[in-house]
Every structure is written in C-alpha cells, then in structure tokens.
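Entry type: protein chain
Record version: 2
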Amino acid sequence: MRTKGYLLRQGLALFAATLVILFLIAVIWEFWLETQAFRLLGWGIPPDLDTASRWRFILTCTGFAAIAMVVPWILSLRLIWRLRHRYRQLLAARARSHHLTRHDALTDLMNRPWFMTRLHARLSPLLEQTALLVIDLDNFQKVNDAHGSTAGDYALRCIADRLNHVQTVGDPLLGRLGGDEFVVALTGALSRRDLLDQARALQRQIRQPLVCGSRRVSLQATIGIAIAPLNATSADQLLAAAHDAMHEAKRGGERIRLQKNCLPEAQQEEAHRAQRLRQALDADEIVPFYQPVVALSNRVTVGVEMLARWQHPERGLVSPNEFIPLIETLGLMPEMTRHLLDRAMRDARQWPGECFLAVNITASYLEDEAFVMQMAALLKAHAFPADRLEVEITENVLIERLDIVQQNLSRLHDMGVRVSLDDFGTGYSGLYHLARLDVDKTKIDRSFFNAEEIRQDNLVRMIIAMGRSLGMSVVAESIEDERLAEHLAQQGCHFGQGYLFGRPMPALALREHLMSCPHETARP
C-alpha cells in the first residue's frame, strides 16, 4: 500500500527532474539554439551577452520556474494522496460489505445462507462423509429476561468464540443459524465415537460459566447430529435431519442424539460409490492403460490410445463401464483426464520411437474454456511434442455447443495437436461436422465390421474413400480377425486397432511390446 511518505518522495523526485530538464533547456538555448533561432526567424543577431550574464539568465529562469511549480505541485500531491486514501477506504468498505453478506454481524461466524452454500459445495458431489451438528442453547431466553438483551448478545459472542477454538477432528465449518442456534459441519472419516466425543467437547466449552452483569451464568446445550450420506445426500436434507435429532433429544431429555433415520439403501450405496471413486482418484488407483494402433500396410505400431483402468486393491481391474459414467456424473472427468495424461506423458519418455498418444475427450471437458490452456500446460511441462498428441472426440459430443467446440479444436490444431473423430457414422450429422471442424483422422466404429452384411461393407468402403479424398487418415477399431485386417488394408484403410494387434496394457507391458514389435520411428 502506498504511504504518504512514499508519495512525497515520488513527488520530490518528479519536481527535481522537472527542474533539471528546465535548466538543461535554458543552457542549450543560451549557448547553442538562440543564435540559430534568431537567424531562422530573420531577427538578426541576438544581444551579445557575456558568460556571466548568460548564466544569470539561466538561473533566473530556472528559479522562477521552480517558484511557479511549487504551489501546483503541492496541490497535485495532496490531491493524489486524498484520492489514494479514498480508494483505500472504498476497498475496505467493499471488503467489509462482502464479509457482512457472508457472516453474522453479532458473532462473526458464517451466517445461514453462506454456511448452507459451503455445505452444499461439500456435498455436491458427495465424495466424503460429512457430519452436521446442530447446537441449541437451552433456556437462553432466561438470560435475556434476567439480564437484558445486551448481556444476551455478549453471551452469544462468548459462546461463538469458544466454539471457534474447540479442537476438531474433522475439517470444520462453523456458523450461526440464528437466535441461539449454532451449527458445525465436520468432513472426514469420523466414527460414531468420534462424533460423540466432539459433541461432548463442544458442550464442555458451552458449560463454562459466563459473567452477565454481576452474576455468573452457566448454559447447557442440546446437540443433534446427522451424517451424509447415511441420513441425507443434500445440504437441506442434512440440516433437517440434524434439526430433527436435536428436537428428539430435547423431547427425550437427552443432551446429544444421533439421527437414526437412514436413507434408502440404494441412495446410500450410490453415495458410498462416489466417495470410493474420489478416494481412488486421490490414491492414484485409476491409471492409464495403452492399446496399440498399427499401420495396416506393414503392421508397424505408430501410436497408442490411452484408456482409463481402475486398479482396485481388492477387486483387481474394474471395468471402465462401472466407473466412467459415475466419473462423468460427478464432474470429475476433466480432473481424471489431466491426471492420466500427466502419467501418460511421463510414460512416453520410455517408449522407443515416436508413437503418438491418443486420448478421448468428453463433451464437458471439451466445452471448458480452460481446456486448451490446460493441454498446453501439460505439453510444456513434459516437453511433449504437440504433434504426438491426438485428441479423440465422438460425434455425439458435438451436438450441444458446436461453436465452442469448434473454437477449442481450432486452437488445439494451431498448437499442432491432431484431432480424431471417433465412432464415425454412429452419431448425428457426421458430414456436417467434417465440413466445419479441423479433423485429421476418422475412426470407423466396430458396428460396421460384419462380414455377413454386404451393405455394411459398402459403407466401410465409402467412409475410407471419403476420408482419403478429404486428406484424412482412417482408423478401423476392434479388429480381432486377420482376414478383416487384410480386407481393410486392401480397401485402403490406413490404421487398425484391436485385440489382433494388442490388448490394453499398462505402461511397462507396452514398453516391452514396443521393444519386441516393429514401431514407428517417424511420426505418422
């Protein structure tokens, strides 16, 4: 922050610099420019002054200039300082206003709307267990009646300060719902015993005597506890469940009560799966596998497609069909894609040759404004050549926001990244997309490879011919039969991918595969 002393120093420096410039201009005028200016204007020869007179003139001009500048300089400096001061006041007022919209004016804890917003963020998606403790002060109205509202406000501030300093076992959120109700949210793997111990610690802090007026007052509290996802899956449901537990405790003469009503088993199971998937991402259990792509003309491996696999510590490899849809639903696909690409680019350093790396991008990530920037950051971090990265998209992701997709793909193309249209012919308006997008390669869906269907074979021929005429490479997926590979090669299909050439494999197995099989030494 700029201080008044700083502004004064800067103003003095500007003042001194201006005087020096005026002095130099006067010197140059008297000793060099005056004669030339008179001749140019036809005024004859300027008065012949001795050197002392010239210097007196120079110093006089500089002195008058300094005197003339003092008052405007002081006024300008004062104005600048006042403007800066007002600006700092405005920033402080805006910060206070922003704080007050989110915090309770009396206790400075989070108010109900902001607390619920933060709680909603923790539960959407529901990736970890979150417990909510609703704290209600018993008979608090008696404090106001006996000692006045000022003493009551003081008591609430003291209770809030004590709650704020309680040692918690989970990542806490603390707020005031209103009146004499407080709320605490704890996120983490907390057992029933941990939660009860936490509630007792909060009660001990509340029970400590308070001085209200001239008397010491001890307050008691009733606490209701609800757990997500056991009792609820949304913020509103969780608060309602904790409130119900608190009211049940009051009716039963208890101090602490855990909500017993549970959600249906199906909802609990779904929430637990989401938590487990989040843990799998954090624990690096979801890893990249690679499936080779070969040139059909000579069976040389020219690239690999990156595929996600979950290495479950108990179940082994989990099928992508089990977790990819949930990853997409939870909004974790961009995070998973970046994580897997980061691993894949590190693995690629060990590959012989210069095989390309293909990655499938979902609609939600492709429409993200930060998508291209994040891809560029990954390429730069690993010094990975852009023309070795291939982004695969399906036709179905291009329906909703084609303009944004087109812009992002064009920016990728400008960087040198290649674009492939996956499952061509199974989506909508395939030819329309080929006309509008910068596509380098098309992949023929496996559903077209049925040797018994002559019409399908003709469609494959047409797709290959169309791709070649547009200057695109064509890839055939799911090739498992040697006869089909030969047939596609004869029709002019460039590349093939399938179990015939290699199943999806981890990084070490791929390196051994590339060392033992022919691979591309130049980028396709």
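Comment: The chain has three domains: 4-102, 112-259, 285-516.
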